[in-house]
Amino acid sequence: MTMDFHQLVASRKSVRGYDPSRPLPMEVLTRILDAGRLAPSAKNLQPWKFLIVRSPGMLDTVRPCYGREWFRQAPVILIVKGDRNAAWVRDSDSWNSLETDLAIAMDHIVLAAQSEGVATCWISAFDPVLLQKVLNLTPDEEVFALTPLGYASPDAETRPKSRKPFDEVVEFL
Prior knowledge:
alpha+beta, NADH Oxidase, two-stranded antiparallel sheet, 6 helices, 5 strands, 32% helix
């Protein structure tokens, strides 16, 4: 599926329903992940790691971190984690770029998935303590977000995309 960038951004929605019978081909998954790898980051430090959960045992271990039934349907769960100590820190006020860097990488990933016809749903409402434990993360590693990756089921729930009007969010100075 090829579309221009504006069409891609306008068509992307959070999908809540996956077809567990349709596996995600490795070449498609690789292209999606490569989009995240190519994302910009402050000072090009790339303080991220993309964890791909797709084995049945590991899926069973990770799925309890988010209790929605549709989440259990996806054949792949992508977890974006980062290391706060590996991110750029602004000298003037010690602001850390980790969340910004990881958000850019995650956005590249969900848009790449959309371009491949692969459904996503950006999730931040997960149980971080459970993930910290089951993923054996160090105290410096933080899970930023996760998303199921898979093909939408025919009855997948999506919500209409509603955005504020252009003039309400853009100000020309």
